[in-house]
Amino acid sequence: MSKAVSALEGASFEGFAKVEETGLRGMITVRGDLDSKEMAAAVKAVTGVEMPAVRKIVHGESGSVAWMSPDELLVVCAYEEADAKVAAMTEALAGQHALVVKVSDARAVFRISGDDAREVIAKLAPVDMSPAAFPAGEFRRSRVAQVAAAFWLNEDGSFEMICFRSVAQYVFDLLSVSSEKGGEVGFLN
């Protein structure tokens, strides 16, 4: 059996912000009734966190959970823990109308960091990236240029962005060009 590798094997770019492909990450799509006590219990058991509010991501020691849509969550965890978490959630949701699917190998994850990281995303996504509108814990599904992506702001001021693995190089190039020195806009300062 061959070893799994991330989409861009840790590619990085340093401009006025730093762009890094973060490597393999466990990701699980969960669909079902997000208001059910069974769903809340399954999420808490697997991640240690409560259900996220609309357009939010919550973090815990055993993983993160992001609100994707009225009937969908994204569980983010260590890559090697994804299979066990899928099995545990599937068992916890037995008898419920729910879907639990590992999507780790179909995604790529990027970290955008630095004082002007917010500006990099503001250039690419039709989202109000001002600090008041996009605080830590905020989560968006949107697009960056021509492709679907999701991103959030961490407590340390860095952003993480998820896209389909098939467009990882395109997204990395977009983020890199948008963070090139001399391309600062300064409108968020």
Any overview of this molecule?
- With about 190 residues, this protein is an alpha+beta fold.
- Helix content is about 20%, strand content about 30%.
- The strands form 2 sheets. The chain has a 6-stranded antiparallel β-sheet, with helices on one face. Strands 4-5-6-3-7 form a 5-stranded antiparallel β-sheet, covered by helices on one side.
- The radius of gyration is 17 Å and the shape is globular.
- The N and C termini lie far apart (about 50 Å).
What keywords describe this structure?
11 strands; alpha+beta; five-stranded antiparallel β-sheet; six-stranded antiparallel β-sheet; 189 residues
Share of helix, binned: 10-25%
What is the arithmetic mean of pLDDT?
95
Tally of contiguous helical segments = 4
Question: What portion of the residues fall into strands of 2 or more residues?
Answer: 25-35%
| Biggest sheet layout | 6 strands, antiparallel
What structural class is derived from the secondary structure elements? Answer: alpha+beta
N to C succession of SSEs: EEEHEEEHEEHEEEH
Radius of gyration, in Å, reads 17 Å
Spatial ordering of strands, largest sheet: 1-2-8-11-10-9
Total count of strands: 11
Determine the N-to-C terminus distance.
50 Å
Low-confidence sequence ranges: none
Task: Note the overall shape.
Answer: globular
